[in-house]
Specification:
With 344 residues, the chain is an alpha+beta fold. The chain contains 6 helices and 17 strands.
């Protein structure tokens, strides 16, 4: 596929495989103790060793992958087995009462997600290799799921248990981070389940003297218009604002350590001297913002944008003098070149 292939709304092309989502692979056991369990409304249930998985029919999957943070890689090549082929090969039948499939991981918090059973059987693969090489632990080794028609968060790293269910069981990102349960990049861009925020709630947020009550994922604001926001305090650590419009916000010197600001818009905002260490700013738009002396070390930067070009091709760039960031951050290629050279 070429770079001319249309992308879903809000996506940017990359040739990298950014490390996103959970990164702690410590809960996955050694291969001699590793098991894949297939249970629930399926008979017979299955308990596969790693040798059993490798003995399944092995196929090549070439698929476009769309991450909710905003990156897309076209034509990614995986090796593994479709879920439907696994069941067929092992003589296991899904019962008519099954409506959903839950996928759970070997992870410290038992990360999981779910799909309608028809979608999973049509589109979900269990893969162990990428581009001809085994997956790395950070990308889900030894085995992960991939469902190409859905955002990448519907895939589970270190997959351990597959359970067929009569009723849906919301996954980790969907229940804790307001990610959309359907996760279709086309055409409706189903990234977040935004719900609604009452106007008076947003007014209270804008005028708050302290943001302690707003910290943490349970207090997430999604899709809120905060243009020109000038908070009364600079202490904004661990606030969760996703897909919010912060254009022109006055945040110079703000403590935003550990904040979640994924896919927020900061064009024209002032963030000079702001402390964004450890923040999640994946997919955020900073072009035209003042980031002079800001500290982005330890921040998640996948698909973050620091420059763009307008419809006439003119460069709109962030001010980045004195900006600190990790040299090995998961930046898109053109954005990394910009930060390294400050020119294009």
């Amino acid at each position: 596929m070429s770079s001319e292939t249309p992308l879903p709304p809000g996506q940017a092309l990359t040739h990298k495989f950014p490390l996103v989502g959970e990164k702690d692979a410590s809960a996955a056991p050694p291969l001699d103790a590793w098991r894949l369990e297939v249970e629930g409304l399926v008979e017979p249930s299955l308990h596969l060793t790693w040798s059993d998985v490798l003995a399944l029919p092995q196929r090549e999957l070439t698929a476009d992958v769309h991450c909710v943070t905003g990156w897309t890689q076209l034509g990614m090549r995986f090796t593994g087995t479709p879920l439907a082929a696994l069941l067929e090969a092992r003589g296991s039948r899904v019962l008519p009462t099954a409506r959903f499939v839950s996928f759970a991981a070997y992870s410290p918090r038992a990360h999981n997600t779910s799909l309608p059973v028809d979608r999973a059987l049509a589109d979900t693969w269990l893969v162990h290799s990428f581009a001809g090489l085994p997956l790395t632990p950070g990308h889900g080794a030894p085995l992960r799921t991939v469902t190409p028609s859905r955002y990448f968060y519907k895939g589970v790293k270190w997959v351990h248990r597959i359970e067929f269910l009569a009723a849906d069981r919301l996954g980790t990102w969907e229940s804790e981070s307001n990610y959309h349960n359907n996760a279709d990049p086309w055409p409706g861009d189903e990234r977040y389940a935004t719900g609604s925020h009452a106007p008076e709630e947003i007014v209270r947020f804008r005028r708050a003297a302290s943001y302690l009550p707003y910290r943490g994922p349970s207090k997430t604001l999604i899709g809120v218009d905060l243009r020109g926001w000038s908070p009364a305090t600079r202490d904004l650590g661990n606030i969760f604002l996703k897909d919010c419009d912060l254009r022109g916000a006055q945040l110079a010197g703000a403590n935003l350590r550990g904040a979640n600001l994924t896919r927020c818009r900061f064009e024209g905002a002032t963030l000079a001297g702001a402390d964004l260490r450890g923040a999640d700013i994946e997919g955020a738009a900073f072009f035209g913002a003042d980031l002079t002396g800001a500290d982005l070390r330890g921040a998640a930067l996948s698909a973050a944008r620091f420059f763009a070009r307008d419809e006439n091709g003119r460069l709109i760039a962030a001010k980045i003098d004195g900006l600190r960031w990790d040299e090995d951050a998961e930046l898109l290629e053109d954005q990394e070149r910009f930060l390294r050279s400050e020119s294009l």
